[in-house]
Design a protein that fits this description.
The chain is an all-alpha fold and 235 residues long. The protein folds into two domains: 1-73, no CATH class; 95-235. The protein has 13 helices and no strands. The longest helix has 17 residues, at 122-138.
């Protein structure tokens, strides 16, 4: 499928109800309102397609941008393109999910994550923490910089309650991810989770809630998920 064919199909899949729902969560025009499940049907037809993913993201259409991440080739995407993507991501489904997924699976994952969390721009900093969470969920422990992750946990403990709104959300997610996916740092992450307690985030009037890190970690451990790595970040 080429760009025009994909955009035509996305247009046919859109619905006003889905569009209305996405807008409550912060989605911005232009977009058709395509359900993620329907986007995955398109992915099955396309598979990975590096050039098409770049074209789709450049449309500025949120549905197309999300699809771009789902079909992106993590082995071909460049640091420059990922930097461009994180700047163009205009709401959290793109900046905290689709772009970090691809970034974390690429060879640029760690370096970009560390760079992004230092940004004074909320969406980029939140993208950085999300990228870190995804990165540690797929990388073997013996390839992770444990000492640096430990320092990042300290940073979260010290700064989370004064951080920008969405950054608080993804910092909280990083503590959870570390506790679940990095057994070496489990006790440390749980300790930080207890210290930070409940994290308040403005969810824009939606029904979405911020997980209490300690409770979320406890449920994951009881489910036998400690140290169980994911095959890929994208889902």
């Amino acid at each position: 499928m080429n760009l025009s064919q994909v955009m035509k199909e996305l247009s046919s899949m859109g619905s006003e109800q889905t569009k209305k729902n996405w807008m409550k969560h912060g989605a911005r025009e232009p977009f058709y309102g395509v359900k993620v499940g329907d986007l995955k049907k398109v992915v099955k037809k396309i598979k990975k397609n590096h050039e098409l993913s770049l074209e789709l993201f450049d449309t500025g259409n949120s549905d197309a941008m999300y699809l771009a991440a789902l079909i992106a080739d993590e082995n071909k995407i460049s640091r420059r393109h990922l930097q461009k993507w994180v700047r163009k991501a205009n709401w959290y489904m793109l900046s905290e999910y689709s772009v970090p997924w691809v970034a974390s699976e690429s060879k640029h994952g760690w370096n970009l994550a560390v760079e992004w969390i230092a940004s004074d721009k909320e969406k980029i900093a939140s993208a950085g923490w999300s990228t870190l969470s995804n990165y540690i969920s797929i990388q073997p422990d013996d390839e992770l910089p444990i000492d640096k992750l430990e320092k990042l946990l300290d940073l979260v403990e010290a700064q989370i309650h004064s951080a920008a709104n969405r950054v608080r959300y993804t910092m909280n997610g990083f503590v959870i991810a570390t506790a679940i996916f990095v057994p070496t740092l489990h006790e440390k992450a749980v300790s930080v989770a207890k210290k930070i307690g409940k994290v308040t985030v403005d969810m824009g009037g939606t029904a979405c809630k911020v997980p209490v890190a300690v409770d979320y970690i406890d449920k994951a451990i009881k489910a036998g998920r400690l140290g169980r790595k994911r095959k890929m970040a994208r889902c």
